[in-house]
Amino acid sequence: MKIERAEVIVTSPDRNFVTLKLTTDDGLTGLGDATLNGRELSVASYLSDHVVPLLINRDAHRIEDTWQFLYRSAYWRRGPVTMAAIAAVDVALWDIKAKAAGMPLYQLLGGASRNGILAYGHASGATTEGLFDSIRSHQEQGYRAIRVQTGVPGLNAIYGVAANRTTEGNKGKRYDYEPAQRAALPAEEDWDTRSYLRHLPTVFEAVRGEFGPELPLLHDGHHRMTPIQAAKLGKALEPYDLFWLEDCTPAENQEALRLVRQHTTTPLAIGEIFNTVWDYQTLIREQLIDYVRSAVTHTGGITQLKKILEFAAQYQIKSGIHGPTDISPVGMAAALHLDLAIHNFGIQEYMKHGEKTNATFQQTFTFDDGYLHPGDQPGIGVELDLDEAGKYPYQTAYLPFNRLADGTVHDW
Ligand code: GCO
Ligand code: MG
């Protein structure tokens, strides 16, 4: 079974997505997600200019060999662009292999370890009242675990807080947060860590007071704190029993997590900007985190993320696969097959895509009563409608960035 055709499709139904479509000589097709938020065209070029020509006539069954070939023969290893490109090839090949086997992908990964995949949604509000409404709205949609982000007094736009805006393609009230904005330049937001640290525990106090002790609550620090600030926040949040505190500090310096860990029992989740197992080496071996946050899309695909999660399993560290709207339905479906098969599943992030996206990417995965399931169609269960995709050309869009009160650029 040889790869006969490889196409890179860039489309922007509700937001930009980059998809790789492989077709074999016996007519099977496979899809892989290569979307890198705000830097989409770089991966599209990496694929079209440097990877597609290498794929033609390769044996579509040789997934591990293709992965190693793309990783090692480039010489320039790792990095988000390279690893998103490799991920797209990897997932497309798994999709093809599963279709050839006549099975949903999770069967090839060992079969189901559970009946459904617990998902968490994004609730947010500029005020406590808005936040409560958003949490209730998520519970009504079936979510059984909820991420809580709020405004901070004195700060205007900040990470994670949706303005309940009605956007084109997302009609009606929308409580989910979509950080990238279609504009020629990145939006500027403001930040003050001390105000945030003072305010956040009061928000969790209010949420626990309103919603009780059972509801699993999560929070994303989005890389804003120094290790000692993160330690202080983790400690302050202990009474509210968080499911996890995410990206409490930038983790390029993995050793920084030792300090956080020494001071708090709040569970820690890290990894959405990581690309390979090497980014986790110290974090996993020294048990400095509790959840691996990588996306299939940004971590070299199923092949690499499965290895990371198996390494993590030896240390009782679980999965928390990244699933914001910038992961396409293809990347989400791939994650769901992995979630269903692995033993050390923790939770899956799930933000719903807009209507145009769902019409462009036809999906078999379901969300019922708080649990996701990838469906039982052979492959990963997503097909791309090229006519729909063709209606929405790429639009320039960027993630925002942060400045402190004195104008210093801070971590966003
Ligand atoms: C999350 C993430 C996202 C990212 C976004 C960047 O936890 O879902 O932090 O909100 O900011 O995916 O592309
Ligand atoms: Mg995050």
Automatic annotation (TrEMBL):
<dbReference type="GO" id="GO:0016052">
    <property type="term" value="P:carbohydrate catabolic process"/>
</dbReference>
<dbReference type="InterPro" id="IPR036849">
    <property type="entry name" value="Enolase-like_C_sf"/>
</dbReference>
<dbReference type="Pfam" id="PF13378">
    <property type="entry name" value="MR_MLE_C"/>
</dbReference>
<dbReference type="GO" id="GO:0008927">
    <property type="term" value="F:mannonate dehydratase activity"/>
</dbReference>
<feature type="domain" description="Mandelate racemase/muconate lactonizing enzyme C-terminal">
    <location>
        <begin position="128"/>
        <end position="267"/>
    </location>
</feature>
<dbReference type="Pfam" id="PF02746">
    <property type="entry name" value="MR_MLE_N"/>
</dbReference>
<keyword id="KW-0456">Lyase</keyword>
<dbReference type="InterPro" id="IPR013341">
    <property type="entry name" value="Mandelate_racemase_N_dom"/>
</dbReference>
<dbReference type="GO" id="GO:0009063">
    <property type="term" value="P:amino acid catabolic process"/>
</dbReference>
<protein>
    <submittedName>
        <fullName>Mannonate dehydratase</fullName>
        <ecNumber>4.2.1.8</ecNumber>
    </submittedName>
</protein>
<dbReference type="InterPro" id="IPR029017">
    <property type="entry name" value="Enolase-like_N"/>
</dbReference>
<dbReference type="InterPro" id="IPR013342">
    <property type="entry name" value="Mandelate_racemase_C"/>
</dbReference>
<dbReference type="GO" id="GO:0000287">
    <property type="term" value="F:magnesium ion binding"/>
</dbReference>
<dbReference type="InterPro" id="IPR029065">
    <property type="entry name" value="Enolase_C-like"/>
</dbReference>
<dbReference type="InterPro" id="IPR018110">
    <property type="entry name" value="Mandel_Rmase/mucon_lact_enz_CS"/>
</dbReference>
<dbReference type="InterPro" id="IPR034593">
    <property type="entry name" value="DgoD-like"/>
</dbReference>
<dbReference type="InterPro" id="IPR034589">
    <property type="entry name" value="D-mannonate_dehydratase-like"/>
</dbReference>
